[in-house]
Amino acid sequence: MDRYVNVPLSEKDAHSLKAGDYVYLTGTIYTARDAAHKRMQETLDRGEELPLKMENNVIYYMGPSPAREGRQIGSAGPTTASRMDKYAPRLLDLGLKGMIGKGKRSKEVADAIVRNGAVYFAAVGGAGALLSKSITSSEVIAYGDLGTEAIRRLTVNNFPVIVVIDAQGNNLYETATKEYCRE
């Protein structure tokens, strides 16, 4: 089912999304990859405030390539989400409502998604140039020294993703495998 959803992600919208839904996100999302997640973890361990509020926000696991002239951002494809698995449950417990990446997630992340009524979306790997066309603005808001791994605030318009793990714990990677595998 095609869904058009505004971000930040409301609790109502997060709970209404189902594994397998095609979703077009419009609004504000943030980028963060491995180095930024590590730095956020260290910040929390020191008892300090994060550079962005987690509540209802969506983090896209992406480090863009440099923007060409006249463009807001370069290629903007997803990175492998499992690399953030050791950090994700804590951020979900702080109110993070959605994550965008590619690939499977650990049981601990899936449990934290259900516990917090959140969603894991997949973006199509290898389609970074196409995905960048849905990004209308990009601004580094923290950790600029990390270059492409800095935290960015993105404004997106109909950014295409697929719900992989929904707030009820349904996992498209598991159900699709069962549905399409032959014995």
Automatic annotation (TrEMBL):
Coiled-coil portions: none
Q: Which GO terms describe its molecular function?
A: hydro-lyase activity
The chain positions of domain Fe-S hydro-lyase tartrate dehydratase beta-type catalytic read 8-175
Name the UniProt key words of this record, in alphabetical order: Lyase
Keyword Lyase applies: yes
SUPFAM superfamilies per the record?
FumA C-terminal domain-like
Q: Which superkingdom is the protein from?
A: Bacteria
* InterPro entries assigned: Fe-S_hydro-lyase_TtdB-typ_cat (IPR004647), Fe-S_hydroAse_TtdB_cat_sf (IPR036660)
Q: Name one Pfam family in it.
A: Fumerase_C
Q: What family does the database annotate?
A: Belongs to the class-I fumarase family.
Q: NCBIfam families annotated for this entry? A: PRK06842.1 (NF005310), ttdB_fumA_fumB (TIGR00723)
Q: Under what name is this protein listed?
A: Fe-S-containing hydro-lyase
Native source species = Simiaoa sunii
> Source organism lineage?
Bacteria, Bacillati, Bacillota, Clostridia, Lachnospirales
